[in-house]
């Protein structure tokens, strides 16, 4: 026993001496464990940690390696030429990859996990749904109704009471409600005044927490936890079961409604009708979409869960960071309000029949046209705080990136959009400033930046197919909330 204690003491002492000697290094490569201890210790601030490494190294790429006996190897990059090459020029060589699929296995074969031919087919199917006039009208009406009936009364009450509220929680509830209505046609009432809990939401949160942890540790660690059903993996298994039950019920209910002639024009109903068209031979034999649509309830479950999560998380993050930046920069808020006031003054419907001002006023998409500074502030907030700060890609064949880094099958590449927005050599010395003016030309029009510098909705063939719809929903919500006086009340 004394020998064991002595051995442990020697190991600990050796690690302590090694750490004291190397602690000033930008990225520590621990003996036996590689960079993993550093990653785990900085998970709570992973985006700032990565950005700090880039700034310290003065380069656009660096490697993170796992334990000696593991194959864990990440290449993290912010180099604009690399990003364009990976996302667009040689897109086919950099799929999500099997490691990514394993970590997000709860999404099954949905479009977020799909690669190659399956992804192309699903994208065309989703594109057809999201671009239809019926769905766009349904989504616009749904968003406006939730804003008017729930978000407006809640924030109005907070304003009148002079109290504070967690806006990130409010936006999360708002976007989850609108996402579930758009995808399933079901109203969770998650944004009700009493701010209730919901088992659907809780299951999603538990699953996402476990997935984030999977990216921080070697595959063997989280797979062992899953096999033992302990820690985050135990919650992950439980949340998976909960989601399966809820989604199966929604799918069954929607199919029954369609049989009765009730069509809500939701994403789910559109996909079910596509399956029925395939089964009844309305698509020609060999049609490349029929092989995707005719995959039963499992395909519906995977696709609808993917769309629900994508609709909530990106919009919540975008709205939350936008208002946080507005709070920190009142001069920007005032310029946006000036634009909104001008837009409002042009609307005759802004007055009731008695001539009294209708307040609060919920702006629609027609009101938001021509709001250049408002749109510029939106882009600037996405530059500094992108909804998807990190993106992961695999490697099919050995390749050389534009900056000279060699990538091989088995490696994973991390594209840090968060760090891109903080690199002086990309955005200038004022890159940390919230400066909407950088998006406006001298003639007063918007100056949209190239995708290698700004890809808030991803870029290339895999860019977000619903980005226009998400932008409109965010704009409508932001413009309403900014109408309240003393915005800092919301905290």
Automatic annotation (TrEMBL):
Keywords: Heme, Iron, Metal-binding, Monooxygenase, Oxidoreductase. Heme binds at residue 464. InterPro entries: Cyt_P450 (IPR001128), Cyt_P450_CS (IPR017972), Cyt_P450_E_grp-I (IPR002401), Cyt_P450_sf (IPR036396). SUPFAM superfamilies: Cytochrome P450. One of its GO terms (molecular function) is iron ion binding. It comes from the Eukaryota. GO terms for biological process: lipid metabolic process. Its cofactor is heme. Belongs to the cytochrome P450 family. This is Alkane hydroxylase MAH1-like. It comes from Nelumbo nucifera.
């Amino acid at each position: 026993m004394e020998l064991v204690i002595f051995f442990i003491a020697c190991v600990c002492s050796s690690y302590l001496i090694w750490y004291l000697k190397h602690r000033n290094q930008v990225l520590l490569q621990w003996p036996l464990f590689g960079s993993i201890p550093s990653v785990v210790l900085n998970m709570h601030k992973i985006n700032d940690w990565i950005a700090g490494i880039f700034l310290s190294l003065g380069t656009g790429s660096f490697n993170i390696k796992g334990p000696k006996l593991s194959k864990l190897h990440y290449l993290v990059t912010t180099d604009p030429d690399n990003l364009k090459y990976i996302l667009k020029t040689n897109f086919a060589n950099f799929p999500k990859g099997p490691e990514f699929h394993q970590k997000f296995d709860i999404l099954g074969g949905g479009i977020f996990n799909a690669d190659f031919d399956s992804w192309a087919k699903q994208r065309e199917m989703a594109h057809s749904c999201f671009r239809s006039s019926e769905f766009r009208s349904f989504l616009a009406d749904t968003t406006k109704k939730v804003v008017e009936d729930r978000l407006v009364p809640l924030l109005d009450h907070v304003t009148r009471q002079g109290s504070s509220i967690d806006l990130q929680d409010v936006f999360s509830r708002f976007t989850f409600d609108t996402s579930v209505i758009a995808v399933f046609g079901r109203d969770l009432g998650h944004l009700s005044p009493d701010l209730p809990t919901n088992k659907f939401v809780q299951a999603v949160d538990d699953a996402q927490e476990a997935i984030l942890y999977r990216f921080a540790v070697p595959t063997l660690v989280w797979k062992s936890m899953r096999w033992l059903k302990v820690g985050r993996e135990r919650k992950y298994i439980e949340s998976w079961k909960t989601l399966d039950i809820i989604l199966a019920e929604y799918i069954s209910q929607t199919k029954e409604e369609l049989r009765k002639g009730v069509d809500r024009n939701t994403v789910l109903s559109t996909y079910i009708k596509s399956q029925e068209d395939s089964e009844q031979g309305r698509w020609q034999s060999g049609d490349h979409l029929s092989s995707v649509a005719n995959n039963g309830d499992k395909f519906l479950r995977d696709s609808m869960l993917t769309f629900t999560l994508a609709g909530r998380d990106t919009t919540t993050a975008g709205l939350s960071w936008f208002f946080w930046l507005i709070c920190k920069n009142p001069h920007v808020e005032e310029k946006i309000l000036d634009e909104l006031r001008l837009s409002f003054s042009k609307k005759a419907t802004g007055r009731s029949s008695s001539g009294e001002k209708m307040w609060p006023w919920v702006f629609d998409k027609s009101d938001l046209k021509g709001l250049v500074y408002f749109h510029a502030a939106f882009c600037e907030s996405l530059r500094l705080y992108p909804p998807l700060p990190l993106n992961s890609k695999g490697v099919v064949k050995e390749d050389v990136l534009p900056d000279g880094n060699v990538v091989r099958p088995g490696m994973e590449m991390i594209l840090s959009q968060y760090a891109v927005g903080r690199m002086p050599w990309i955005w200038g010395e004022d890159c940390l400033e919230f400066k909407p003016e950088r998006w406006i030309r001298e003639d007063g029009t918007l100056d949209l930046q190239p995708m290698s510098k700004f890809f808030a909705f991803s870029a290339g063939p895999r860019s977000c197919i619903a980005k226009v719809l998400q932008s409109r929903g965010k704009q409508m919500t932001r413009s309403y909330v900014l109408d309240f006086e003393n915005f800092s009340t919301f905290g």
